[in-house]
Amino acid sequence: MTVAGETGAVASAAGDGRPLIAVVDYGAGNLVSIDQALRAVGADVVLAHRPERLAGADALIVPGVGAAAPAMNRLRRRRLLDPILAWLADDRPFLGICLGLQLLFDASDEDGARTLGVIPGRTMELRDAPRLPHIGWNQVDLRRDHALFAGIPSGSNFYFVHSYAGVPEGPGADAMTLAETTHGRPFVSVVARGNLAGVQFHPERSGVDGLRLLGNFVRSLATGATGSPADSAGAVPRDLAAAGARGA
Amino acid sequence: MLCHRVIPCLDVANGRVVKGTNFIDLVDEGDPPELAERYAREGADELVFLDITAAPEGRGTLLDIVERTARRAFIPLTVGGGVRHVNEMRDVLRAGADKVSLNTAAVSDPELVTRCARRFGRQAVVVAIDAKRVTEPDDAGAEPRAPVKWEVYVRGGRAATGLDAVDWAARAAALGAGELLVTSIDRDGTRSGFDTDLLRAISERVSVPLVASGGASGPADFVAAVRDGHADAILAASIFHRRMHSIAAVKAAMAAAGIPVRLTEEVHA
């Protein structure tokens, strides 16, 4: 597999000031896009298919598509469940993408799987959706400002491909709901709490605004470490701007 | 509100983008990664990469070109051609595809659709259907009218299957396809408009998203595919490859017709 071969040897960001992001690899799905996008916005990437590879990482990203039960089984088999839970318990920088967000909830209606239980609530099928799966570009409506969306206006389009979404419950639900998207009815498309964030869409496949979001995430790790000017938030290098359409 | 997607299609043969008429007479149109980057820049919502010589030649997908293409464009990539097993789908996803399109293999092994959906989720499984109009004997010599049936063809449009396209579409969705990519063989490369009768017949039978393909000549066809064909996304190749129409112009026409689309800076420029 070319990604593992290419990035597997690069385990350290030492000396170059680029944050090192561990992308959890549990054996299914496209990691090329997230690898390419993170490198494009100034991070080094290590694909973590076993717990040892989380060592030295500044942030953890759990990507993924598909169903919860096989994902949980693969994480367990690769001894990654406990390290991920410990990472979250310490409130270290974390981004869940699509299934990686859904796994943070207590359980999934999709196959009845018990998931990580870090966010109270369940992953449920989208209600009253005209078509499922929900595939394509849809608007992310922000409820409040957040560093992750610096330079990205509310209502910008991001790419979704899913049928289920997490439904936060309990007293903290409103506080951690950062954005909603409507397909049939509104659902929670972004959550944020402390250093934890989760997006139901795919920023690595969402053109320039997706790169902006990942760039904001990466810069938040470098704050204080590299002296990146705060006013660079939301900026995308010009050559990257050429690589994707600007969301209107 | 979910936007209707405009999807340039890269038909790849021997590592080059090609385009034919009615699935034959291939003409070289360029390098896949270069075209992918150009289309992402011009506002494409997604890309479809079809290795059209894989199935007829009985070999796997060109993984290195898939990866180089995926790394050049930060928009979703669907890859089809030559995937016959779950492990081959895994390899294509790991090379950078977000969705995999099954065509010939799904017809010969329908359970493959279910196995792939179970492993990777139905949203990653596209079933591509190449359909050709069947003229009923009663219609011979009669005035042209809406055809009653379409037949599924496989192996790059070379082999008839006897399957009814609308029935197969419904079955594919029931088996686990998360999206259908429906190409009219009659219209493919002819620039005579999409077969909206075929699209609507399938759209009414399934609840998964439907991608229209085959016959685009200009912006009005994209509007018709949505309005009359009830398509969720529209795919085209030669009109974009040859710069006959820009993606921005197509989207502007769709927006003017009240169809939600993702507008890009080039539209406003």
Structure in words:
The complex is a heterodimer of chains A (248) and B (269). Chain A has 248 residues and is α/β, with parallel strands linked by helices. Chain A has one domain: 3-Layer(aba) Sandwich (Rossmann fold), CATH 3.40.50.880. Helix content of chain A is 25%, strand content 28%. Chain A has helices spanning 2-7, 32-40, 68-77, 81-89, 99-102, 173-176, 207-222, 238-241, and strands spanning 20-24, 44-48, 59-62, 94-97, 105-108, 119-125, 134-142, 156-162, 164-168, 177-183, 185-193, 196-199. Chain A has a nine-stranded mixed beta sheet with strand order 2-1-3-4-12-11-10-7-8, with helices on both faces. In chain A, a hairpin with a 1-residue loop joins strand 10 and strand 11 (185-193). Mean pLDDT of chain A is 87; it is low at 1-14, 224-232 and 241-248. Chain B is an alpha/beta fold and 269 residues long. Chain B has one domain (5-268): Aldolase class I (TIM Barrel, Alpha-Beta Barrel), CATH 3.20.20. Chain B has an eight-stranded parallel barrel, surrounded by seven helices. In chain B, strand 1 and strand 2 (16-21) form a beta hairpin. Chain B starts with a strand and ends with a helix. The mean pLDDT of chain B is 90. The chains are: A alpha/beta (248), B alpha/beta (269). At the A-B interface, helix 2, strand 7, strand 8 and helix 7 of A face helix 1, helix 3, helix 4, helix 6 and helix 12 of B.
Features:
heterodimer, A: 248 residues, alpha/beta, Rossmann fold, nine-stranded mixed sheet, three-stranded mixed sheet, 8 helices, 28% strand, globular, disordered N terminus, disordered C terminus, B: 269 residues, TIM Barrel, eight-stranded parallel β-barrel, 12 helices, 12 strands, 35% helix
Low-confidence stretches of chain B: none
Largest sheet of chain B: 8 strands, parallel, barrel
What is the average of the pLDDT values of chain A?
87
Number of helices of chain B: 12
The dominant shape of chain B is globular
Distance between the amino and carboxyl termini of chain A: 36 Å
The count of strands of chain A amounts to 12
- Roughly how much helix do the residues of chain B carry, as a percent range? 25-40%
**Topology of chain B as a string of helices (H) and strands (E):** EEEHEHHEHEHHEEEHEHEHEHHH
- The first-level CATH class name of chain A: Alpha Beta
Main sheet makeup of chain A: 9 strands, mixed
Calculate Rg of chain B over CA atoms: 17 Å
Radius of gyration from the alpha-carbon trace of chain A, in angstroms: 17 Å
The CATH homologous superfamily of chain B corresponds to Aldolase class I
From the 3D structure, determine the CATH topology of chain A.
Answer: Rossmann fold
Side-by-side strand order of the widest sheet of chain B: 1-4-5-6-7-10-11-12
Number of strands of chain B: 12
- What is the structural class of chain B? alpha/beta
